[in-house]
Design a protein that fits this description.
heterodimer, A: 469 residues, alpha/beta, five-stranded parallel sheet, 17 helices, globular, B: 205 residues, seven-stranded mixed sheet, 35% helix
């Protein structure tokens, strides 16, 4: 049998039928949120029902407030936001799909809860109504985001028409240096391959750096595959994956765990398999990163200076640099460590997991926040675990604000937002213009770097801070 | 879905690369049900001041207010999967975007709503954009069946498109009708797949 990639093994097993180069793929799990109201509306218009409601998982995350939750849904002050939360309740009740809702002790972000619950598993096809669905590929499955029309189709048929993407392997060998995180790895990769480098491709992350990562770290990497243009990113399942999953509510139990393992262990890419594109990077060269512009590819090591348009390689790049610097409000050539910030946000589907909170707390305990700094756990499970470990107390005594789980300042539609012109060190995934509120300025960093920025009021190399302890 | 066959219309040149879907539809408008008000949402925060007055923006200027085609730069539509970005384009009147590359999800969303994404090379897009700036209000013609774009100066460019996407756009077909033809195959698939992977269908512990 020909050697094939993990992506192809999973893809091939899910092909129902092929038609002129498009395939109808069976979908194992569909993930939705309040914003899937457009997909439900389309179902209604066409008078359709959900084919397999047990395979659809809904999450209250994008619109949920991160304070004042004790007042319940009716306590959400803005009617349009409150209605989005209520609409999801109504739609999921009507169609009988799983809901991790407002009051659920498992509530959280749609890319954090399914892995915690064992809903995300190796070998699956997962379709999500959100571009960061790529996160779930950390378990060795094909997971990708889609718009409302495609999600409506998945809900109505439990299948999706797709064209097979090309495959791309990003191998990072070596080891990460002290104080370098998974977030730095993915920002480094995007800076190398560009924001469109992965367009039309599914990425497999391979090499010692990813093999030695925890599941949380792998999720951070796969999460931002979309910022590199790829709809899907994946890491082969291994002992780390199985250890993380065993005993989770939706994970296979009893003799079925063994049945599942037999399938999962056959998933990794065959030795001789070929990828359409190979990228190889050295882990030891990666340092803490900070985005300086308005696109995630505009990221640099914290030790460098933002570019000067005069040094651009051509007219086109000169224009891009100038536009980005103008929006972000930084003079050309400014050292990144001279950039002062107004706010800090630690959270999101990229960096709202327990290890992220631990990393932030480890730095926060060394000082006091000089600027408003929010910590928003990715789920109630993360929040409870952090509180059990006393991380909330460490963060609060360092002046950080400990909030309720949700997407919060990453997508800025629940009422949490920056004021025009405010500059935020953020562990989220997008530094687009206005992403954190109209006129907001975002710098993407790791949780440790964000916490360090909070206690210094500007960007600092977290390695310097951690060296002393 | 409205079919897309041919289109001759005013084209607006947008020079910036990596236009993300947050620009096309700022996130706070995602909750707006699809409707005519999406015309105002397109590029909202670049077109309007907080008080609702217009900013300086190409799409606020005659003749580009009437544009049905946008000629853009690389990685158009990157970022969030929000389909509201397509509703905004569509309600403004845009039926075709020509760019050197598109983000995958956004290109799909366009096609599923009858808006044609056309890929031409970076140089071709840059040439057309320059011509459109030189003669504001000039028309571009797109013929989907022939897979050609005719620029303002009459130069014709061929483009590639997947045959299924082409057929669906030409005929205004939606995916569900295609899928329903294969209902038996889906059922046959599921009956085998389920027995192989029983653990996927068990209740949570």
């Amino acid at each position: 049998m020909a050697a094939i990639t993990m992506f192809e093994k999973i893809w091939n097993r899910h092909v129902v039928v092929e038609e002129e180069g498009e395939v109808l793929l069976y979908v194992d799990r569909a993930l939705i949120h309040e914003g899937s109201s457009h997909a439900f509306a389309a179902l209604e218009r066409q008078g359709r029902s959900i084919a397999c409601p047990q395979q659809v998982f809904a999450h209250t995350d994008h619109y949920v407030p991160t304070t004042g939750r004790d007042r319940g849904i009716e306590g959400i002050s803005v009617p349009e936001i409150r209605n989005m939360v209520k609409l999801l309740n109504a739609n999921t009740a009507k169609h009988g799909v799983h809901l991790f809702g407002f009051d659920d002790p498992r509530q959280g972000i749609l890319h954090i809860v399914p892995p915690e619950q064992g809903i995300t598993q190796p070998g699956l096809i997962i379709a999500g109504a959100d571009s960061h669905t790529s996160t779930h590929g950390a378990f060795g499955c094909i997971a990708f985001g889609m718009g409302a029309s495609d999600m409506m189709h998945v809900m109505a048929t439990q299948a999706t028409w797709q064209r097979k993407p090309k495959t791309m392997r990003i191998t990072v060998e070596g080891a990460l240096g002290f104080g370098v995180s998974a977030k730095d790895v993915i920002l480094f990769i995007i800076a190398r391959i560009s924001a469109q480098g992965g367009v039309g491709h599914a990425i497999e992350y391979a090499g010692t750096v990813f093999r030695s990562m925890s599941m949380e770290e792998r999720m951070t990497v796969c999460n931002m595959s979309i910022e590199g243009g790829a709809r899907a990113g994946m890491v082969a399942p291994d002992e780390t994956t199985y250890a993380y999953m065993e005993g989770l509510p939706w994970a296979p139990h009893g003799t079925r765990w063994r049945d599942a393992l037999a399938v999962w262990t056959a998933l990794p890419t065959d030795m001789q398999a070929e990828f359409d594109r190979e990228v190889t990077l050295v882990g030891d060269e990666i340092t803490p990163m900070v985005s300086w512009g308005t696109n995630p590819e505009q990221s640099l090591p914290v030790t460098s200076c933002v570019p000067d348009p005069r040094d651009a390689r051509d007219e086109r790049q000169r224009g891009e640099y100038a536009q980005a610097l103008d929006y972000i409000g930084i003079a050309p050539g400014t050292p990144i460590s001279d950039i002062r910030i107004d706010r800090v946000f630690i959270g999101s589907c990229t960096n709202g997991r327990i290890e992220d909170i631990r990393a932030a707390a480890a730095v926060a305990r060394l000082g006091k926040a000089k600027v408003p700094a929010w910590v928003v756990p990715g789920s109630q499970t993360v929040k409870r675990t952090a509180e059990r470990e006393g991380l909330d107390k460490i963060l609060k005594s360092a002046g950080f604000e400990w909030r309720e789980p949700g997407c919060s300042l990453c997508t800025a539609i629940n009422g949490d937002q920056l004021q025009p012109g405010e500059r935020c060190a953020s562990t989220s995934n997008r530094n687009f213009r206005g992403r954190q509120g109209t006129g907001s300025r975002t710098h993407l960093v790791s949780p440790a770097m964000a916490a360090a920025a909070a206690i210094h009021g500007r960007f600092v190399d977290v390695r310097e801070i951690l060296k002393g302890i | 879905m409205q079919p897309f066959t041919t289109l001759t219309a005013i084209a607006a040149p947008i020079d910036e690369a990596n236009i993300d879907t947050n620009q096309l539809c700022p996130t706070r408008f995602n909750k707006v049900p699809r409707g005519p008000e999406h015309a105002q949402i397109l590029f909202h925060d670049r077109r309007f001041n907080p008080d609702g007055t217009e900013k300086e923006h190409l799409l606020n200027v005659e003749p580009f207010r009437l544009a049905k085609i946008i000629v853009a730069d690389r990685n158009w539509g990157c970022g969030s999967s929000r389909e509201s970005a397509v509703y905004a384009l569509y309600e403004f009147g845009i039926r075709c975007v020509i760019a050197p590359s598109f983000a995958d999800i956004h290109a799909n969303n366009c096609a599923k709503n009858g808006l044609l994404p056309v890929v031409l090379s970076e140089t071709e897009c840059a040439d057309i954009r320059r011509q459109l700036r030189e003669v504001p209000g000039a028309s571009v013609s797109v013929d989907l069946a022939a897979q050609t774009v005719r620029g303002p100066t009459g130069e014709t460019y061929g483009f590639e498109i997947h045959p299924v996407r082409k057929k669906c756009l030409l005929e205004g077909l939606d995916d569900i009708s295609r899928t329903l033809q294969y209902r038996d195959k889906v059922e046959a698939f599921v009956s085998v797949y389920r027995t192989e992977r029983l653990w996927l269908y068990q209740d949570p512990a």
